[in-house]
Amino acid sequence: DGGITQSPKYLFRKEGQNVTLSCEQNLNHDAMYWYRQDPGQGLRLIYYSQIVNDFQKGDIAEGYSVSREKKESFPLTVTSAQKNPTAFYLCASSTNRLRSSEQYFGPGTRLTVT
Amino acid sequence: RKEVEQDPGPFNVPEGATVAFNCTYSNSASQSFFWYRQDCRKEPKLLMSVYSSGNEDGRFTAQLNRASQYISLLIRDSKLSDSATYLCVVSREGNKLVFGAGTILRVKS
Predict the structure, then answer these.
(1) What DSSP string runs through B34-88?
(2) Degrees to nearest 5, angle at CA B104 with B103 and B108
(3) Which of chain A's residues have a Cβ under 8 Å away from the Cβ of B99?
(4) Where in chain A does DSSP place strands (E)?
């Protein structure tokens, strides 16, 4: 089955620790995205990548980092510099990196930092 | 002003009712438009794309008014399973999308 997987589903960390969220897709999509969702708010774009070994900051990149070493994988690291890391993190991918097209989402990771 | 604005609801409707959601967007250069559905504590899923000529998929009809920068979604014969949050989504420059905060629909028996 083709799709996007994210792991883990739930993640708990202490303040001051870095944590890496996994995102893998086998849809052969060029573009991948990371969003966070907070209660009552729309999804906000953290980082995106339109091709391997290249990525761009989104609207709220501060305190996050990414890598895109393989087409299938786009891990997100939430660093200790992120002021409010507790959120629902969603990874997405899309087929066409040259113009806007629909994005498909993984099941998400709920991160709680205390 | 938010890039995409939606009435948060909730819209509480009986089964079988027709319900309509509206959405406005601020970027006149937007080219692509979508409605996504999000169930509680789940990921958003694409419901339908919205074309300039309007489009229909079963009980769902989407309309786009570029002049007024307005998108609508009509659901006919509502089912209990339609209960969800509906996200209005608009394209930005490059290959990026902007998501509205969503409209909550509750269909009751």
Answers:
(1) EEEEE-TTS-EEEEEE--TT-EEETTEEEEEETTTTEEEEEE-S--GGG-EEEEE
(2) 145
(3) 35, 42-43
(4) 4-7, 10-13, 19-25, 31-37, 44-51, 54-57, 64-66, 76-78, 87-94, 104-105, 109-113
* Chain B residues within 8 A of A27 when measuring between CB atoms: none
Amino acid at position B70, single letter = Y
A107 with B100: Cβ contact below 8 A: no
What does the block give as tokens for B50? Answer: 């919205």
Q: Dump pLDDT digits (tens) for A9-53.
A: 999 999 999 999 999 999 999 999 999 999 888 899 999 999 999
Phi–psi pair at B38, nearest 5 degrees:
-130, 120
Q: Which residues of B touch A105 (CB under 8 A)?
A: 43-45
A109 to chain B, any CB pair closer than 8 A? The answer is no
Chain centroid to Cα A94, Å, comes to 13
- At residue A40, the pLDDT reads 81
How far is the C-alpha of A107 from the C-alpha of A13, rounded, in Å?
Answer: 20
Nearest to B95 among A90, A98, A106 (CB): A98
The pLDDT of residue A100 is: 65
